[in-house]
Amino acid sequence: MDVAIGFGAFARGPEAWKEAVRFVQEAERLGVRYVWTAETWGFDAATPAAYIAAHTERIEIGTGVMQLGSRSPAMIAMTAMSLNSMSGGRFVLGLGASGPQVVEGWHGVRFARVLPRIRDAVAIVRLVTSGQRVEYHGEYYELPLPGGEGKALRSAAPPMQIPIYLATLSPKSLELTGEIADGWLGTSFMPEHAEIFFEHLRRGAERAGRRLEDLDLQATGGVVAFGDDLKRLIEPRKPGLAFTLGAMGSARHNFYNDAYRRAGYEEAAREVQRLWLEGKREEAARRVPDELVLKSNLIGTEQMVKERLRKHRDAGVTTIRVQPEGRTPAERLETLARFMELVREVNAEAPART
């Protein structure tokens, strides 16, 4: 298994950005393979990726994720080619549909026909980055626009191969990921319930004449925190899970909540969402089961964390994305270093037979 981290620079000034990139430099030295930048409704994903590229040498840099509703496919491709060129071929394009609250409330774009939009956007990005003339007639996008003065253009940048990863959760979007993407960016993931995702990814891959193993399956391992006082480690994680179950989407569309329900936590997921939407956030956090926290994170003694890593490995995860715990950057790096050593030990073992 490889290891990925997020670029958590919700910075309030230049020093915070510098501190965040120093953490990435140390992560690179420790052997972390990927760093992912995010965008919601604050900073964008592309600009921090360029900043990281300028200050690192080996780590692969991805947008995790760039929102499809925020840019045209051609602009996505242009941005990806710029970042790939500046980083010396280290860029990975992570795309996601986001959700209706952000897409409609922030970008002013209808959250509709999501699957055709994803399929067409990926196809157009590949046309652009491969140096082909862009003439495309899809279900969502058509280029050039019919009836106008548009011309089918070829990118002025040199052709390049850029891996495309999709962040998806629903069954149909997972199938599409398995069919067209180079990798999957998975959230709401618990290795004991990996098949609620992998079944659909596998179906899509087979439809395209390939295997699930042909994809890089990147799944969130959650927070990494070491200690033998489980209650102290579990309780601080509950508000974050309550936010995911209750606030990451609307009452009608919360794909994260749906995923936990499919994993067998129907009652808890519905109840946490109800309490959150009623404004009872502390009560919502208390309703999050301890078991859900333990399965969604890498917390406990070193032996416990190591056993969780084995479960991810044996489930088929190829890259695990983590958030090292610590009050300071130095403490976070210490946690990451301990974790990387455990990953090396688990990777050296023979995987369990299934």
Give a quick set of tags describing it:
TIM Barrel; 48% helix; alpha/beta; single chain; 8-stranded parallel barrel; 354 residues; two-stranded antiparallel ribbon; 2 domains
Tally of separate domains: 2
CATH H-level homologous superfamily name of the largest domain: Luciferase-like domain
Report the structural category.
alpha/beta
Order of helices and strands: EHEHEEHEHHEEEHEHEHHHHHHEHEH
As laid out across the biggest beta sheet, the strand order is: 1-2-3-5-8-9-10-12
CATH architecture of the largest domain: Alpha-Beta Barrel
CATH class division of the largest domain: Alpha Beta
User: Outline, from the CA principal axes?
Assistant: globular
Count of helical segments? 15
State the total count of DSSP E strands.
12
CATH topology of the largest domain: TIM Barrel
User: Could you give a short account of the major beta sheet?
Assistant: 8 strands, parallel, barrel
Q: Tell me what portion of residues adopts beta-strand conformation.
A: 5-15%
Rounded to an integer in angstroms, the radius of gyration calculated over CA atoms is 20 Å
Distance between the termini: 17 Å
Question: Which bin fits the share of residues in helices?
Answer: 40-55%
Poorly predicted regions are: none
What value does the average pLDDT take?
Answer: 94
What's the arrangement of secondary structure elements?
Elements: E1 2-6, H1 14-30, E2 34-37, H2 46-55, E3 60-63, E4 66-67, H3 73-86, E5 91-96, H4 100-105, H5 114-129, E6 136-137, E7 142-143, E8 164-167, H6 171-180, E9 183-186, H7 195-207, E10 216-226, H8 230-234, H9 238-247, H10 255-262, H11 266-277, H12 281-287, H13 290-296, E11 298-300, H14 302-315, E12 319-324, H15 329-348
Parallel strand pairs: 1-2, 1-12, 2-3, 3-5, 4-5, 5-8, 8-9, 9-10, 10-11, 10-12
Antiparallel strand pairs: 6-7
